[in-house]
Design goal:
This protein is α+β, with helices and mostly antiparallel strands and 151 residues long. Helices cover 32% and strands 28% of the residues. The chain is built from five helices and six strands. A six-stranded antiparallel sheet has the order 1-2-3-4-5-6, with helices on both faces. A hairpin with a 2-residue loop joins strand 2 and strand 3. Helix 2 crosses helix 3. It starts with 11 loop residues before the first helix and ends in a 6-residue tail after the last helix.
Amino acid sequence: MSKVRPMPQLTLGLMLAAMTSCAPAIAGLNCETSAPPARLAVPLFRLIKVEPALYTSLKALQWSELKGFVQGPSLPAVTLSMNGQIWLASTACLAHQCNTHSLIVLYNPATQAIAARADLGGTKKLGGVRSAQVDLALVCADKIFWPDRQR
């Protein structure tokens, strides 16, 4: 009988190295990731506790799926620099459905603006700030957090 070995924890440093290595492969996008301040390098369910404006903005979207996303698996936030603007990028997914049901949230701590995109098994929802630059940042974050996803 073979022993079941637990998967090793992915450290923030290794995760950031993997994410940063994905950035140059994104044709036409000028995006880079880096580690945010330690208090913000947390999964989405913790980030909404340390950034109350983010929580308020997410609630304002009034998306029924948000509760499932916030309670599902998530990765620590990263800082995404897009054309001189700094955003925190965070992701979460519905448990056992991460490949098809995920949420990308961009949050600008300086302006308290958010942009969000939910993938709901073939349907997409967009909310928050909308501009060409923010739409590119959402695409960039999606490819960084979910590099193997079929689009």
